[in-house]
Each structure stands twice: as structure tokens, then as C-alpha cells.
Amino acid sequence: MRILVSLxxxxxxxxxxxxxxxxxxxxxGIPPVALLVVPxxxxxxxxxxxxxxxxxxxxxHEAGHELVLHGYWHxxxxxxxxxxxxxxxxxxxxxxxxxxxxxxxxxxxxxxxRLAMGLGLWSRLDLPRPRGFVPPAWLHNQHLDxxxxxxxxxxxxxxxxxxxxxxxxxxxxxxxWASRDVVRRQGSRLVCPWLAGKWRNRELVRIAIHPHxxxxxxxxxSIDGVLETLAVRGTFVPYSGIQP
Length: 244
Prior knowledge:
This protein has helices at residues 15-27, 51-62, 87-96, 108-124, 144-151, 182-198, 217-233, and strands spanning 2-10, 34-37, 40-41, 45-46, 66-69, 156-157, 161-164, 168-171, 174-176, 204-209, 235-236. It is α/β, with parallel strands linked by helices. It has one domain: Alpha-Beta Barrel (TIM Barrel), CATH 3.20.20.370. The strands form three sheets. Strands 1, 2, 5, 9, 10 and 11 form a six-stranded parallel β-sheet that branches. Strands 6-7-8 form a three-stranded antiparallel β-sheet. The longest helix is centred in the middle third of the chain and has 17 residues, at 108-124.
């Protein structure tokens, strides 16, 4: 088993939590992880207004962590639901993510524009060009892959696995904790260890950590336990070494 670890929602908004999580992972011998960086988290935390954090990003990159573009705002911008969308899309947008599925309802021109905005900001800040792109909440529509191919991205992922624009797909389930309310937190404590056991014989498993997970000691303990369980059966590897 190979195990991939990613840290989502990397932003000046979550700077201290990101530091704590990376120190936590390093103390457990886990190699550099994918850092999913949001250029302007919720429209209030633009990277170009936080040069000290940008310097930290560069330092983490030099230490081996892969910087991945993760949406632009990580929030839907009052985009209407696409024509023909049904209950499943409504559920994903409103219940599963609380309106953070930024790329789920975008049209093709909007997808290309949002990617261009993100890449433009990274270029102005001299951040290394991202090889990967992950849509917020792993939600997107059919317009994303062609736009990623146009921009030369090497990989993306969703809830089911990792893929290269063009159709090559590596199945890889993901374990992720939910912290938004007490029901989700309690559910995560039960479900995530169960999934670690269920998927212990999979070829590739992903672990996704979010900054707000570390607001809750019970979730930190759960993450620690899952990492320990999987470490017995597999090897932690960086995203840079995965080619679907």
C-alpha cells in the first residue's frame, strides 16, 4: 500500500494551523505532503497581501512539499445552478460543502478564467508553477479537465482518485475528517478509523487533512490513529512520485 497525505486550504487564514499540522506530520516521520494552496481564501486572504506567508510557502516547497493550486476563492460566488442539475448537485453544494464547491457550477469560460487568475497570482509571487490542481471539496463538472489540459496541469483528483487530463485514472479512496458541527465530528471519529481498516489492502489510499481538524483534540487523536494504522500496512509517498 502507498499512502498519500495532503493538507487542504493552505492560506494565510490558516497559517498557524498549517505550521502545527506540518510539524505534527514531520514528528511522525511522514515525508513531504501536497499543500493545497488557495490564492484568496473566501475573498479575504489574498496571498499577495501576506508576503511573510508566501515566504513560508517557498520554504515548505524547498523542503520538498508540493504546492498545488486549490481553486481561487474556495467559495461559490453566487453562481446559479447549471441547467439540468438535480438533487445530487444541490446536496453537494449545500449540505456536503456549505457552498464551498467553487468549481461545481462554473461554465467553461469561467473555469478557464478562474485557473488563469490563480496561475497569474502565483506567477507574480514567483511561486513555482503548480503541477496539480484540486477543485475545492473535490467538486467540479465536465468543463474542468479540458481547461486543465489547456493550461498544462499534470494531474487533478476527486473523491474517487487521481487522474491526468485526458482520461488516465488511478483509483484511490480518500479518508477525510469533517469538523463543521458536532454530528460530523462524532461521525468522523467513527467512520475514518473504520475506513482505514476497510481499505488496508488497497494499492493507493489518500489522507486529506484540513486546518480546522486541528481545532478539535478528538479529531487530532483520530488522525494520529489512522496514520498509525495505515503505516503498519504501507508506505507514505509524496504526490510527486505518483503517475496515474
